[in-house]
Design brief:
297 residues; alpha+beta; Thiol Ester Dehydrase, Chain A; 2 domains
Amino acid sequence: MASAVETLLETLDLEPLEINLFRGRSPKVGWQRVFGGQVIGQSLVAAQRTVDPERRVHSLHAYFMRPGDPENPIVYEVDRIRDGGSFTTRRIVAIQHGKAIFSMSASFQIREKGLEHAFEMPDIPHPDQLVSEKELAEQFIDHAPENVRKYWQRERPIELRPTDLTHYVSKKKLPPFQNVWFRATGKLPSDPAIQEAVLAYASDMTLLDTSLFAHGRAVFDPQLQVASLDHAMWFHRPLDMEAWHIYTQDSPNASGARGLTRGSIFSADGALIASTAQEGLIRLKRASDAKISVSGS
């Protein structure tokens, strides 16, 4: 049986259908809808397949329009907007059942030297000092809701180690900040394109949840309807997804049934690798809807 990382690599390895046209599939893990990071990662791979390998992605801007169906393939159509002297621009549309479910613009650049500065990594505990996912599950899984237990018990391609577990074990209202260490759980190719696609996949994890800290709620709350609405990402420096990275996040605003979260991704030695921003739906359900959700989960 393939490991979770091997399954992720297979998921990101799109099938070419025609020039500028690719097909992706979803792993069978029991989700009712496709994980947003998967669509981001697959869209980036589709764009990469149409770009000179010497040009690396430096930014992407995406919108989620419809939930993806994990039981059916997703077709990715790439529009070659521009091939300039230094920059390349692509637009990608993910299509399922004849309708667009996701769109993304991505820009690629030849590596150049220039002025440099970056924020410093926050002073936080090293992952070796924190509770592992396995230890976390052993301590708290028996008291968690069924959907949370299923999530933590499943083998996953990305390991997460939050620096503070309060949000995960209580409904206490907290400042809207979060720091999470993460890395791939297995061996990855050194190809920069694959490393970037895996980072794009992981970048959708935990962001939306941070916007709920101030309200004492979590993404698994049956009283909430949560979904990513848009996602932006900027790639600053080379990376190694087999090594630990820290995802430091803050949520400056929640209003209009939406929550905004910003993120900075640092390598363990303090280099700023990437920046993210995401707005997500955090809508309170009616009481009748929440009951249906609990009984159907």
